[in-house]
Amino acid sequence: MSLVRRAPTRLMPSVFDEVDRVFRDLWARPFTLVPTGTAHAVTDPHVGVYETKKEVVVKADLPGLQKENVEVTYQDGQVHIRGEVRKDEEVQEEGHYRRERRCGAFARTVVRPAEVNDEALSAKFENGVLEIRAPKVEPTTAQRRIAIQ
Questions:
Q1: For residue 56, what are the β-bridge partners?
Q2: Nearest in space to 41 (alpha carbons), one of 62, 65, 69
Q3: What is this structure's pTM?
Q4: Residues of the chain whose pLDDT is less than 70?
Q5: Please, are residues 137 and 120 in contact by the beta-carbon 8 Å criterion?
């Protein structure tokens, strides 16, 4: 049995580091504390990636966006999704007036998890969900002889 010296101050730096991180994140992205709503969904959309036996699928939730406001590009094995929403809503009723403006932009990059056919990528946008499909390339497992020069 061995004795281990207890150092109560060992935890102090990690607590301070965590507090610093929270404030850094708050100033860098001030709307991340908004629990729900379009402002949060637009600036930080949920993106899911999964693969089947034949293809890789990327799905992004983009509520409030139109197809014309979304751009998808592919370069060096990465899918880049960019978008911007600008919405001006005005409600005028008896004794009540409300006007809201929402705007925000985002950019997300997803690295492909498998080799895909770069020329056969397709994208579909329906009901606020962007779906990108990329057929996988069959890996070559055949052995071949390489000549030594």
A1: 51, 134
A2: 62
A3: 0.60
A4: 1-16, 25-43, 140
A5: no
Query: Residue 125: which of 40, 57, 61, 42 has the closest Cα?
Result: 61
| 127, part of any domain | yes
- Number of independent structural domains in the chain: 1
- Report the alpha-carbon distance of residue 29 to residue 31 in Å, rounded: 6
> Is 61 inside a domain boundary?
yes
Both structure tokens of 114:
């498998």
Could you say which DSSP state residue 146 is in?
-
Nearest to 64 by CA among 92, 34, 84: 84
Read off the tokens for 47: 């993106």
String of DSSP letters for 15-62: HHHHHHHHHHHHHH-GGGG--SSHHHHHHS--EEEEE-SSEEEEEEE-
